[in-house]
Amino acid sequence: MAWREVRWPEGVYCVACGSHDVECRTSSYRGHLRRYHCLACDKWFSDVTDTTLAHSKVDLPRWFYLLRELDKGRPISQIQPEIGVTYKTALRMARIVREALYEHRDQWRSLLQGEVEADDIHVKGGQQGRQVTHREPRERGLKERGRGTYEGDRPLLCAWVARDGPGTLLELRRDAGKHALFDSAWRHIEPGSRIDTDTWSGYNLLDAAYEHHSVKHSEQYVTAEGVHCNTAEAEWSIFKPWWRQFRGVAKRHVYQYLIQYEFKRTYRDRSAPERWEMMLGFLYVFLTRWLGFPADGYSSLPVH
Predict the structure, then answer these.
(1) What confidence score (pLDDT) does residue 29 get?
(2) Helix H segments across the chain?
(3) pTM tops 0.85
(4) Distance between CA 1 and CA 24 in Å, rounded?
(5) How far is CA 150 from the centre of its chain?
(6) Mean pLDDT score, 9-34
């Protein structure tokens, strides 16, 4: 079982005393788990002892199925009937997986460098699930023009895409100003790198730390010097169909969906089983630390 390989890569040890002098007493505990007995301290434990899954009614095979289908980009509304849980439970499981990816994002993504392109769009995200009292209800079917805002439920989504590599970073910004975009670039792109953008004034501060070039789209899409942001714009042709599957995402949860998309796009050159193993590793560490236990059994995450 992949979970067992992730938790005990060097062999099963006792969760109480750390001894490797253990024996497997039951190979089908709760249908799919192994149950162990420590000969050193007489402790009994299973594959999920000292993780939050020990108290979960959802078994590991259904978690593995969810990981696989999330990697395919399927929405929870389609996955939920197949794993035999309520929609609320399936949604919570997916949020745990996405939060695990987000918490460990610094371990699987790195600063972009070399030639980077930038582009931006606005996505819709309201306050679903919460009572809104600061404004009147909006009418459906109305399209807003101009730049949206986070407070207006049309936050800015900025994409930083490496031109010659798999690196893709998407970030939701509360502010669409030039200081906010410079802050985003500073946290995600190696200083001194080349960044190609359009001529929107929000990118004006990039010149302070980067080799910034811009192209005026009303006149041309590629300058004579080769300046363009076609790679970043093409990323939206992949993102938008994927994003349309998810209906009514509250803006406070958008970052979880973005991190899932980022992970898939960044490691698109890896096989699907390799990505599942990485996601499983992050999930294990996240669930173990959630209870406050040290994740000694998975000290080195499989990210290269």
Answers:
(1) 67
(2) 2-7, 60-71, 76-83, 87-103, 105-108, 178-188, 230-243, 254-266, 272-290
(3) no
(4) 14
(5) 20
(6) 83
Q: By CB neighbour count within 10 A (0-12 exposed, 13-18 middle, 19+ buried), where does 24 fall?
A: exposed
Mean pLDDT of 122-143: 61
Helix ranges, 109-216 (H): 178-188
Which tokens go with 73?
């980009």
Q: Give the Å distances, CA to CA, from 276 to 233, 262, 287.
A: 28, 15, 16
Domains of the chain and CATH, by start: 2-103+269-298 (no CATH), 107-129+148-266 (3.30.420.10)
List b or e across 75-95, with b for residues whose CB sees 16 or more CB atoms inside 10 angstroms. Answer: bbeebbeebebeeebbbebbe
Measuring CA to CA, which residue among 112, 118, 141, 138 is closest to residue 126? 138
Least confident piece of the model among 1-10, 124-133, 256-265? 124-133
Q: What one-character DSSP code corresponds to residue 112?
A: B
Enter the tokens of residue 252: 């406070």
The total of other beta-carbon atoms located within 10 Å of residue 97's CB is 21
Per-residue pLDDT tens over the stretch 228-252: 999 999 999 999 999 988 887 888 8
CB of 116 closer than 8 Å to CB of 162: yes
HSE toward the beta carbon, residue 215, CA cutoff 13 A: 20
